[in-house]
# Entry
Amino acid sequence: MVSIIAISLRSWFGLSNLVTDDHLDLLGMVLLATGLMTAYGYVFEVFDALYSGDAHELQTLADRLTGVYAWTYWGAIVFNFVPLQALWWRGVRRSGWSLMLISVAVAIGMWLERYMILVTSLYRDFLVSSWSKFTPTFWDWSTYFGTIGLFLVPFLIAIRVIPLISIFETEELLHEEKEETHG
# Structure
């Protein structure tokens, strides 16, 4: 999500001379590293369920892999890990548009992961009599949109109040430009 915002702000405000390709390269490496950590978590979750042998864990794993909401699990896998593999190449990491597209894919994958965690824990309770397909209510949607607003309001206020680029970096850039013209 941060890379989407960084790249958008870079292009909207014409900050390509301050937010350089090196910054995008570092952002791409951080995105790749966190994606690999998430992949490790997914692999360990499967290993843990298989190793423990607990009937509930195995049923939850089988349900996530092949159940009614398996599309959320496989969608999270595809969106979180397949596009990230392009970040192994430096040219992709330094391209703002490809970095933004990969970040959007990861954001979709993260949303699918949250949906999977929430829904698969709600539609199959410990009581078999309460098993049913999950249908979101007005309050579910209100909570969802409310959390988006709860994030966006402080974020937009911060963008308005806090400077995008520190003064130190702009003064350093001006100093380097002066040395190039006079040096």
